[in-house]
Amino acid sequence: MSTQASKLEALMDAQRSERGGTRVIAITSGKGGVGKSTLSANISYVLAAHGFKVGIMDADIGLANLDVMFNVRAERNILHVLKGEAGFEDIVVPIEKNLYLIPGESGDEILKFSDATIVSRFVDESQMLEGLDFLIIDTGAGIGDTIQMFLRAANEVVVVTVPDPAAITDAYAMVKVVSKIKSDLSMVVNQVRSHKEGTKIFDTIKKVASGNIESELNLKMLGSIRSDSHVARSVKQRILVCKELSNIAAAADIEAIAMTLVDKKEHKMLERKKEGGIGTFFKKLLGQF
Ligand SMILES: Nc1ncnc2c1ncn2[C@@H]1O[C@H](COP(=O)(O)OP(=O)(O)O)[C@@H](O)[C@H]1O
Ligand SMILES: [Mg+2]
């Protein structure tokens, strides 16, 4: 990179940090297969297309598939960085301008790597991603330890569900668990026939939560996404609906969700609550905070 370009980069980073640091958003669910990866990949794309610098981390242990969704190959992941076998620059896959994939298929083992030297090396390595506006984490489903670790380290948790009763029950169970970790929680209802259906499902969950969860919980609806066969086909076609089929209803719904996240980030900034950088996130993740 030329000096000129790197100066520009530094300037951009400084501005970004004035823009409020990195907002870390974990996307999770009670039940699997509800659309976490679809949502994560597409909101990341939309945010990057709007000029934000975005990292998307694949933290769904054993079921990591963001590389497939983005149609790229990821041979090494975050675990190799933790083990000292690779640097961050070796594993991060640039997807588009402003969009970086952090592959991480073996999340479970991450728990073993919290000694101070490793954490500090990791935090140093992660400087490469300093200046991210958003870090979107596609976590697995359910309430395992690793998932909770990611949820704890995130600024914001989004629980995704679909309208079927089993998924709703699991989503509620997830909300209950997350309420012990985070007081701000939002939900996305995916695969709805109408937004009205999404709102109705959210209202039901919220009502049960208010009646049963004692800790203070600010549970909000982030949005709903209409069911669309194009979305189901998009994974096989290795395309992102928000990129290639932005005129379909589901893509518009995801775009609206991404814009709500931008508003929230800006709102946080007005409250002067600056979020930490990526180094802060990894410190939190590995329990050094
Ligand atoms: N709004 C939608 N309409 C139709 N199909 C969808 C929608 N959202 C997700 N899907 C499909 O549901 C399946 C599971 O989605 P995925 O994002 O992989 O879920 P998860 O990451 O939660 O396991 C995929 O085949 C995906 O294409
Ligand atoms: Mg997934």
Overview of the structural elements:
It is built from 13 helices and eight strands. It has one domain: P-loop containing nucleotide triphosphate hydrolases (Rossmann fold). It is α/β, with parallel strands linked by helices and about 290 residues long. The radius of gyration is 18 Å and the shape is globular. Helix 2 packs across helix 12 and helix 7 packs antiparallel against helix 13 (about 280-285). It has helices at about 5-20, 35-50, 65-70, 80, 90, 115-125, 145-155, 165-180, 195-210, 230-235, 240-245, 250-270, 280-285; strands at about 25-30, 55-60, 95, 100, 135-140, 155-160, 185-190, 220-225. Helices cover about 50% and strands about 20% of the residues. The relative contact order is 0.18. The chain has an eight-stranded mixed β-sheet with strand order 3-4-2-5-1-6-7-8, with helices on both faces. The protein binds adenosine-5'-diphosphate and magnesium ion.
Low-confidence segments? none
Biggest sheet, open or closed, and with what strands and sense?
A: 8 strands, mixed
Helix content: 40-55%
Name the assembly state: single chain
Shape: globular
What order do the helices and strands follow? HEHEHHHEEHEHEHEHEHHHH
CATH superfamily: P-loop containing nucleotide triphosphate hydrolases
Distance linking N and C termini: 34 Å
How many strand segments?
8
- CATH architectural label: 3-Layer(aba) Sandwich
CATH level 1 name: Alpha Beta
Secondary-structure class: alpha/beta
Strand order, largest beta sheet: 3-4-2-5-1-6-7-8
Please indicate the count of domains: 1
**Chain-averaged pLDDT:** 86
What is the gyration radius calculated from CA atoms? 18 Å
Number of helices: 13
Strand share of the residues?
15-25%
